[in-house]
Amino acid sequence: MGAGTLLTEKSALRAERPGQAGFTLIEMMVVIVIIAMTAMIVIPRLPAPEATRLKNSARNLASGIRFLNDQAIVTKKVYRLHLNLTENSTRISMISPDGDELRPPDQFMNRRLIEEGIIIQDVSMPQSGLVSEGEAALSFGPGGSGDGITIHLKGGERHFTVIAYPSGGKVKVLEGYQEVGS
To answer: Which residue from 154, 169, 79 is spatially nearest to 123, judged by alpha carbons?
Structure first.
């Protein structure tokens, strides 16, 4: 058998199976659509990286402080933000005229501000100094917040600092552990 005979046999085999050499465009598009649909379902369910949770927690805490400040001014009521450093959680209460702490009716005030795995490292307030364990509480009255507060959040080795300035409702979120002078 010569080289010419092998080539003709291969050509004959190809002629018997036309279109069997690869995938059709439609088959490839179906596979791509299936992969895309699977990704759309799976990716949102993946846990957020720690850095993203830390940044989200800092932003949520800042927006919660701004909201409480505005809400206290508009409604002429007193609210209190409790920061539990032991459980790394927050709780908002509304203070009744009798001084009792009540659960606020607004759903925004009942949502979680600090995500799972994020640590409230410490809280600095003028009246109580640096608090690194237990609970710290910040009050918001009809004039807004009378005290400034600095909150340090930690996620892994990264830090974010949330600074709420007294009166005016200005709140900053800074990357890193930032010391704030009086």
So the answer is: 154
Which structure tokens are listed for 52? 């993203």
Average pLDDT score over the chain: 84
Region 36-41: what's the mean pLDDT?
92
Q: Which CATH superfamily is domain 50-175 in?
A: minor pseudopilin epsh domain (3.55.40.10)
Domain boundaries, the chain: 3-45, 50-175
- Residue 134 is classified by DSSP as S
Angle at 132 between CA 130 and CA 136, to 5 degrees: 75
Question: Which of 46-55, 112-121, 122-131 comes out lowest in average pLDDT?
Answer: 46-55
Residue 154's CB: how many other CB atoms inside 10 A?
A: 18
Summarize the confidence of residues 173-177 as an average pLDDT.
93
Q: What sign results for the dihedral spanned by CA atoms 102, 107, 109, 115? A: positive
174, with CB counted inside 10 A (0-12, 13-18, 19+), is middle
Record the pTM.
0.70
Task: Work out whether strand 144-145 and strand 89-95 pair parallel, antiparallel, or are unpaired.
Answer: unpaired
